[in-house]
Design a protein that fits this description.
6 strands
């Protein structure tokens, strides 16, 4: 007499998945919050440095009235010159791996300066002659207030968590269905991509380059894996087009491609991604 293997109830599965998703979101919030914070909203623009758009109320920057002057630009932080590329949201903006590595190195340099007890901001009016700048000393806050995280940060977390829960819900109802299994994978990989991207794309200016590289790798892995799962799902829905064993062809093709990108073995980022 065979004993039928018991399964967790749909409610238990959904609860476990929800807790896992919330844990990932809380980790993302912690990574975003526990960063030195100046309270500057910056924007890339033509010309030297970065344009200061606004100052957050109650922030260290708000305690420096000079920073509220219209048209002011932030040229450097503690001697490190700033450039428009420092604010890009995705490192795959670059075409060459060497440029991306230089970007991560710059991020580490800026982040290490922001971690100092006091930073020196070099500011100047737009159109000022080279060398015409003012030095301001500022003490960064030890963390970024949760209320200062931008709406896009919460939107990305919400998308990742919602996608994960919807996919888990469908899978719990049809666990033996290959299309539901692949849909569940899309939820997991979507959450990986969205939650990791929320941390680095919504940074104030810089985070440690090593952490940035790791988060970017998680994002790339989630994005490409989402594509693989989506292909596999449509090969099974609304009608099965191939036997399940043929789904292995998808990772056989794309996993080496992903590894070539993560290990920077591809000729450039355009081919690696």
């Amino acid at each position: 007499m065979t004993r039928r293997r018991s399964r967790a109830s749909p409610g238990a599965v959904l609860l476990a998945v929800t807790l896992a998703g919330l844990t990932g979101c809380l980790l993302a919030v912690a990574l975003a919050v526990f960063q030195p914070w100046l309270g500057l909203q910056l924007a890339a623009d033509n010309g030297a440095g970065l344009r200061i758009v606004s100052l957050a109320a109650g922030s260290p920057a708000a305690r420096q009235p000079e920073l509220a002057a219209p048209g002011l630009r932030l040229l450097a932080i503690s001697g490190q010159a700033l450039q428009s590329e420092d604010l890009i949201e995705e490192p795959d903006f670059f075409s060459r791996y060497t440029d991306m590595a230089a970007f991560f190195e710059r991020q580490s340099g800026i982040a290490s300066r922001l971690a100092a007890p006091t930073v020196t901001l070099s500011v100047a009016q737009a159109g000022a002659a080279p060398g015409e700048s003012t030095e301001l000393n500022l003490q960064p806050a030890g963390h970024r207030p949760v209320a200062e995280l931008p709406a896009m940060f919460w939107f990305q977390l919400g998308c990742g968590l919602a996608g994960l829960m919807i996919a888990a819900w469908i899978w719990t109802l049809r666990r033996n269905d290959w299309s539901a299994r692949m849909f569940a994978l899309t939820g997991v990989t979507c959450a990986m991509a969205a939650i990791s991207a929320a941390v680095y794309s919504c940074r104030e200016l810089a985070i440690d380059g090593t952490s940035f590289r790791l988060l970017s790798a998680i994002n790339h892995t989630g994005t490409l894996s989402f594509g693989m799962a989506l292909i596999a799902m449509f090969l099974n829905f609304p009608h099965r087009l191939v036997a399940p064993r043929w789904l292995l062809v998808i990772p056989v093709i794309f996993v080496p491609w992903l590894l070539a990108d993560l290990l920077q073995l591809a000729p450039d980022l355009d081919l690696g991604l």
